[in-house]
Specification:
Elements lengths: L2 H8 L7 E5 L4 E4 L5 E3 L3 E7 L7 E8 L3 E6 H6 L1
Antiparallel strand pairs: 1-2, 1-6, 3-4, 4-5
Length: 79
């Protein structure tokens, strides 16, 4: 998955939250477009302390080559 692919998801109107699955089995939810910074070879994801509060607890550093797949959270919830 490329930086441009991720950028397209973040800039989608209306924004649809999505889950990033990594090659090591970890996954991270992107709940708001402002929580993700996209760099050429990596992503920086702000992880909230508690969902809905907007207070950031920490950041996850994700290497783009390790992104295995991405899926919309609406589809995950419906499954």
């Amino acid at each position: 998955m490329s930086a441009e692919d991720i950028r397209a998801l973040v800039e989608r109107v209306p924004f649809v939250p999505f889950r990033i699955h990594l090659s090591n089995g970890q996954c991270f939810d992107v709940l708001h477009p402002d929580f993700l910074w996209i760099f050429r070879n990596r992503l920086e994801l702000a992880v909230p302390e508690e969902p809905g509060r907007g207070i950031i607890d920490h950041a996850e550093h994700i290497a783009l080559p390790h992104v295995a797949r991405v899926e919309e959270l609406a589809r995950v919830a419906a499954a």
